[in-house]
Specification:
Length: 515
């Protein structure tokens, strides 16, 4: 998703202003300039939808305080009074039973994240800059202009020298066959799942729900069927394969699993997130399609969710909120990340020059909806007051952008590229430590698509920063165009699980990344 380096400079008069306009189109919009009131209303609608719970809990607290202040004489008088008011007792009891029944039936079941794992590819799949560029040259598919363009993108991308590309891309010439693509998918998915099952001691037969997301590789049988076959999952498993949904599909998959866990009691759900590069490498010379070659790398994750009450004791996190934003009704947003053929008939994923602006609009909508759910009352009042003043009295008043650092302790921003992280850090007024996990994940593993937010969470865990009741915000962008958020709360001081992706290198990070 990184758009740096796409524009070329033009000589002659007026080139400066053109360059400025191009740069502006590739930055996130200033959130202080406009906030749409309808998304604020949507956020408050989510809040009010839990009004019964919000009202019921204070009522119980007030009743408990009242009872605690009563002495024996008060209790005796109450008993005598109730003896002669049988009708009142029956009515009050019926109301109490009805209220408790409604509360129990309507409250959502808690969803726990028991554990997760991230795939760590073998060292022979590493692709340092020099080898990457040399292989690109030896394929004979790229002209000198395209090779130079890829070199510049790599230098500015934020990727390090230890990212991974699939086995087929290490061959000369490359071998992007269906068999090689299946092999890549199996190595990533099975590698992550083997680690997850080993760490959690969960039997594959206990898994009742399976959700797999992979945008660009959708074979028959599906990837979810490949997992069912490999691990001999039970015959009545609810399995799904989400395709074509981009880098934010991991949050979508979690949301789907959460909804299924509300319906199916006492079971486990596994969410597998990956992307497949083998058959989606671009071998043409269109600049907008070459960027994914430089950014996307091999990676994947497997997440174990549970609605079992006894799993709370061993779970790492509890899912608090998922907020999804889809801008697909807008034509520009729909086409800003678009798989198509170039003029020579070669297939690739084209990234629009408007991508950053569209991502910014989707993010603004998402955080405006999320705000009422997570922000302290003080921040909400400031935000809402300035918004009303702007709408009703003075259009020149800038809306107050809430401080999300008061709502979240840790941030996992999709590692789509350096420009994405830079702009989010600036617009959300975050500190360098808040985006450290995203920058280091991009440097060490590259853009691993929908699984990148889990590599980032693993980084924070490996650093020993997650404490009991800390809140984590995972935010991801994807084709369509979508921006999706997931909010988790730590249930204990979280330590990294065995065989984590940062296990042998966390002490080297953070490291300074050249501009």
């Amino acid at each position: 998703m990184n758009q740096r380096g796409v524009a070329t400079t033009n000589g002659g008069s007026g080139s400066g202003s053109v360059g400025v306009r191009i740069q502006q189109s590739r930055r996130l919009p200033d959130f202080l300039q406009s906030v749409n009131l309808k998304y604020v209303k949507l956020g408050y609608h989510y809040l009010i939808s839990n009004l019964l719970t919000l009202c019921f809990i204070p009522a119980i607290a007030a009743l408990s305080i009242q009872v605690s202040q009563m002495n024996l004489d008060d209790l005796r008088q109450l008993w005598l009074h109730l003896q002669y008011n049988l009708v009142s007792i029956i009515i009050c009891s019926a109301i109490l039973v009805f209220g408790l029944t409604v509360y129990i039936m309507t409250r959502p079941r808690p969803v726990y994240l028991v554990d997760y794992s991230c795939y760590r590819p073998p060292d022979h799949l590493k692709a340092p800059y020099g080898r990457f560029l040399e292989h690109s040259r030896l394929t004979g598919d790229f002209d000198e202009s395209s090779l130079e363009f890829q070199r510049k993108i790599l230098e500015r991308s934020g990727l390090g020298e230890e990212t991974y590309v699939p086995k087929a891309m290490h061959s000369i010439p490359p071998t992007p066959s269906m068999a090689a693509a299946r092999e890549e998918a199996e190595e990533v998915m099975f590698g992550a799942l083997d680690t997850l099952l080993r760490n959690t001691n969960v039997s594959p037969k206990d898994i009742g729900i399976l959700v797999v997301n992979c945008s660009l590789f959708n074979p028959t049988p599906s990837l979810s069927a490949m997992i069912v076959n490999k691990y001999k999952l039970r015959g009545n498993i609810r399995s799904f394969h989400l395709g074509g949904m981009g880098c934010s599909a991991g949050v979508i998959a979690v949301d789907l699993a959460k909804d299924l866990l509300q319906v199916h009691r006492n079971t486990y759900a596994v969410v597998v997130s990956t992307e497949n590069i083998t058959q989606n490498w671009y071998f043409g010379n269109s600049k907008s399609m070459l960027i994914p070659n430089c950014l996307f790398r091999v990676g994947g994750s497997a997440v174990l969710l549970s609605n079992k009450s006894n799993d709370r004791r061993r779970a790492k996190y509890k899912l608090i909120h998922v907020v999804r934003t889809h801008r697909g009704a807008d034509d520009k947003a729909f086409r800003c990340v678009y798989q198509e053929q170039d003029d020579a008939g070669k297939i690739g994923v084209s990234l629009s020059k408007d991508l950053m602006a569209i991502a910014g609009g989707a993010l603004k909508t998402n955080i405006t909806t999320l705000g009422p759910l997570v922000l302290p009352i003080s921040e909400q009042l400031l935000f809402f007051t300035t918004l009303v003043v702007k709408k009703l009295f003075n259009a020149s008043v800038k809306p107050y952008i809430p401080d999300f650092k008061l709502a979240f302790d840790h941030f996992c921003i999709h590692a789509g590229g350096r420009a994405v992280i830079d702009e989010l850090e600036k617009n959300l007024q975050l500190l360098p430590i808040h985006v450290e996990a995203s920058r280091m994940t991009l440097h060490r593993f590259g853009n691993t698509s929908s699984s990148s937010i889990w590599y980032e969470l693993a980084y924070i865990e490996a650093k020993g920063r997650i404490r009991n009741r800390n809140r984590i915000w995972q935010i991801a962008f994807g084709s369509g165009f979508k921006c999706n958020s997931a909010v988790w709360q730590a249930l204990r001081n979280v330590k990294p699980s065995s065989n984590g992706p940062w296990e042998d290198c966390i002490d080297k990070y953070p490291m300074k990344i050249s501009s």
